[in-house]
Write a structure and sequence with these properties.
Layout (H helix, E strand, L loop, with lengths): L1 H45 L4 E2 L8 E7 L12 H15 L3 E7 L9 H11 L7 E4 L5 H10 L5 E7 H13 L3 E7 L6 H19 L30
Parallel strand pairs: 1-6, 2-3, 2-5, 3-4, 5-6
Helix pairs in contact: 1-6, 4-5, 5-6
């Protein structure tokens, strides 16, 4: 009888301990989720005045920084985040809102080259190659933004990407005192997972800035040409 009572007490306290642990974990997860939302919203609020949606109202900037992504998803369907960024870059160029386009992205293998892929497609869309420059070391948003300023000397930037990406890129730019605005490319319908991942990407961005992380590669300066008057390219098509 004593042994049975002892086992019951042991089981009872084990269950109590597990319940208490579960409550602590639930609270921890809740606090972390709230913290993610606060960071996310704070970044968006901080840069809100430098984000543009109307092509007629966005100020002219000499340099447009197109942030890279893969052209295709893993199932070989066209990545509309990619397509919409290029379409937006083309429109800004045609409207003479930017003089040059700097295409920044990953270049990890011979088969995967974001800047060169963007170059090929923008040429098909009618943007002359002489107004396009490539940054093959844009491995992260932080790399792309800082290299545009420090390596390519593009001191007056218009970042081109979807709003969620614009906000993070502008936050990095402001932290480094880089003169930048952003024009928003359309966000495809659906793809909620992309926006969820952005919560963690912003937390990582804050951590990188606090830790004073630098781009993987800087290298010697490669200044872009000075601002010019862009020729009329209204005959351009928009097919990729």
């Amino acid at each position: 009888m004593k042994l049975n009572l002892k086992e019951k007490l042991k089981t009872y306290f084990t269950l109590m301990h597990m319940k208490r642990f579960s409550r602590y974990m639930a609270l921890l997860v809740a606090f972390f989720a709230i913290f993610l939302v606060i960071v996310d919203q704070a970044i968006g609020y901080y840069v809100r005045n430098d984000i543009y949606y109307d092509i007629e109202k966005v100020p002219n900037r000499p340099y447009g920084l197109v942030l890279g992504t893969s052209k295709y998803f893993s199932d070989n369907t066209l990545n509309l985040f990619y397509y919409n960024r290029l379409l937006t870059a083309q429109r800004l160029f045609e409207k003479r809102k930017v003089d040059y386009l700097l295409l920044s992205g990953d270049n990890r293998t011979l088969q995967y080259n974001e800047p060169r892929t963007m170059l090929k497609d923008l040429k098909k869309m009618g943007v002359p190659q002489e107004f396009i420059y490539l940054d093959f070391a844009g491995f992260r948003t932080l790399d792309s933004v800082i290299r545009a300023d420090q390596v390519f000397k593009a001191h007056s930037l218009m970042i081109i990407s979807q709003k969620f990406h614009c906000e993070r890129a502008l936050f990095i730019a402001k932290f480094h005192n880089i003169d930048a605005i952003c024009f928003v490319a359309d966000y495809p319908q659906g793809y909620t997972k992309v926006r969820v991942r952005e919560f963690f990407a912003r937390l990582q961005a804050v951590w990188d800035l606090l830790m004073e992380r630098e781009p993987h590669f800087l290298g010697a300066p490669e200044p872009l040409p000075p601002p010019v008057t862009i020729p009329d390219v209204t005959d351009a098509n928009s097919g990729i």
